[in-house]
Design brief:
- The chain has 338 residues and is of the alpha+beta class.
- The chain has 12 helices and 9 strands.
- It has 2 domains: 85 residues, no CATH class; 232 residues, Bira Bifunctional Protein, Domain 2 (BirA Bifunctional Protein, domain 2), CATH 3.30.930.
- Helix content is 38%, strand content 19%.
- The strands form 2 sheets. Strands 1-4-5-9-8-7-6 form a 7-stranded mixed beta sheet, with helices on both faces. Strands 2-3 form a two-stranded antiparallel ribbon.
- It is elongated.
- The protein binds phenylalanine.
- The site of phenylalanine (PHE) has 12 residues, from strand 7, strand 8 and strand 9.
Length: 338
């Protein structure tokens, strides 16, 4: 019996587990219910006399050796580190692949930096908002058809809670709490009840901006946005303002930038030579009043753009869904340091 025990000890000494399956085989063969160890203990019961002590000792050593070996390989396989190498302090470390910033973050940072140069600071607010900050304070009264432009998700378990459809809600919060002059941008995630397609998503990101001081004019708005467009898309960029409607600005406009095809016509601008990038306008005096700012003393402008849209134009991304799929082949293409 002692011979058997020694033979098994030798076998174990040269055992190497290449994978979990092999280690499991090892466990069943030696440590299993019908494995070698149990069989030996069974046989041991029949042993009498002087030999009993020596064999018992040998058996116990075998048992410890088996469970130590098993634990060691289990630890190695679970951690992915070879047992021998884990003791080698001169071994080079495992390399950690360096990630890259998400294109949405890159563009958000770039927009923030451009407005930062004009003295704008950053304001943030909650994504789950109340009706007042998303709609009512901004001149969308309950039941008003303008609300259809921005259908959202309502949180039924918590009355008066909606997912914000724009970061204009943060503008309201700022106006309610900060006395003018105000010069801030509001980046953040927004939500709309939209069918998901290549061009629209129910989650996207915005940067909105707000400037309120004494005698701010439409000329200031235009100059600020032209500066932004040229910093973002190149110094030759032209802008165009088209009259539009938002409940919270009057007058309101959509801003287009000239396409890089220089009006020759391409797929991106659909042969118009222009790309729409944001909404803007002079803050409606009603909105100022709703937020406790005297419209006779102060005026201001606001603007808002979708970060996905700007990134699509800059990086020529064709499908908005790619931003949220977390496909590393897509994400690793963006290496900007912004
Ligand atoms: N809040 C508007 C939107 O999300 C954008 C906007 C902001 C328009 C400020 C005008 C002024 O569509």
């Amino acid at each position: 019996m002692l011979d058997k025990i020694n033979r098994i000890k030798e076998e174990i000494g040269s055992f190497k587990a290449a994978g979990h399956a092999e280690l499991e085989e090892f466990r069943i063969k030696y440590l299993g219910r019908k494995g070698h160890l149990n069989v030996l203990f069974e046989e041991f019961k029949a042993i009498v006399g002087e030999q009993k002590k020596e064999i018992g000792q040998g058996l116990n050593e075998l048992k410890t050796l088996l469970s130590d070996t098993y634990d060691r390989f289990k630890g190695e396989l679970d951690s992915g580190l070879p047992v021998a190498a884990s003791n080698d302090l001169t071994r080079p470390g495992d390399s950690i692949p360096l990630g890259s910033r998400h294109p949405i973050s890159i563009i958000r940072n770039e927009i923030s930096a451009i407005f930062g140069r004009l003295g704008y600071t950053i304001a943030e607010g909650p994504e789950i908002e109340d009706d007042w900050h998303v709609f009512s304070a901004l001149n969308f009264p309950p039941e008003h058809p303008a609300r259809d432009m921005q259908d959202t998700f309502f949180i039924t378990k918590q009355p008066d809670s909606v997912l914000r459809t724009h970061t204009s809600s943060v503008q309201v919060r700022v106006m309610e709490s900060v006395p003018p002059p105000i010069r801030m941008i509001m980046p953040g995630r927004v939500f709309r009840n939209e069918v998901i397609s290549a061009r629209s998503h129910c989650i996207f990101h915005q940067v909105e901006g707000l400037y309120i001081a004494e005698s701010v004019s439409f000329a200031d708005l235009k100059q600020t946005l032209m500066f932004f467009a040229r910093e973002m898309f190149g110094e030759k960029t032209q802008i165009r303002l088209r009259p539009s409607f938002f409940p919270f600005t009057e007058p309101s406009a959509e801003m287009d930038v000239s396409c890089t095809c220089n009006g020759k016509g391409c797929n991106l601008c659909k042969h118009t030579g222009w790309l729409e990038i944001m909404g803007c306008g002079m803050v409606d005096p009603n909105v100022l009043e709703n937020c406790g700012i005297d419209p006779d003393k102060y005026s201001g402008f606001a603007f808002g753009m979708g970060i996905e849209r700007i990134a699509m134009l800059k990086f020529e991304i064709r499908d908005i869904r790619m931003y949220f799929e977390n496909d590393v082949r897509f994400l690793k293409q963006f290496t900007s340091s912004f």
